[in-house]
Design goal:
about 120 residues; alpha+beta; three-stranded antiparallel sheet; 3 strands
């Protein structure tokens, strides 16, 4: 699967529209649609995607090569991660990303609860 297709799938899975994603990155929506057809991204752009979407960079790499009790995740002839220690690091990064996402969602809930309180007070007057 192309990296652009993986981006599209991830955005859909997270419920993020191309327009919203473009706004978050400070790019045009048409750029996001162009990314859907790309097979590779430069490392800076890929890091932006991963940071904004809270996924490890390995999400975008297709090939997995199993060797004994370790896994090498490769893409474009560059090893991204290999061995048990790297797997632990990847999992730790994924946990951190999930914790960041949870914190963000809690902030959204708190803001909505405050809005409900304000609306309830204004309706009660």
């Amino acid at each position: 699967m192309k990296k652009g297709e993986k981006l599209k799938v991830l955005l859909n899975r997270k419920g993020i529209s191309p327009g919203e994603f473009a706004a978050r990155l400070g790019i045009s929506e048409s750029s996001v649609f162009k990314y859907y057809n790309k097979n590779s991204f430069d490392s800076d752009l890929l890091e932006k995607f991963c940071s904004e979407l809270h996924v490890p960079i390995t999400y975008f790499f297709d090939e997995e090569e199993k060797t004994g009790n370790t896994t090498k995740v490769k893409g474009d002839h560059n090893n991204v991660a290999s061995g048990i220690n790297s797997q632990v690091t990847i999992l730790e990064n994924d946990i951190q990303a999930k914790e960041t996402e949870i914190t963000h969602l809690k902030q959204i809930i708190n803001e909505k609860e405050r809005l409900i309180q304000v609306l309830m007070k204004s309706n009660g007057k």
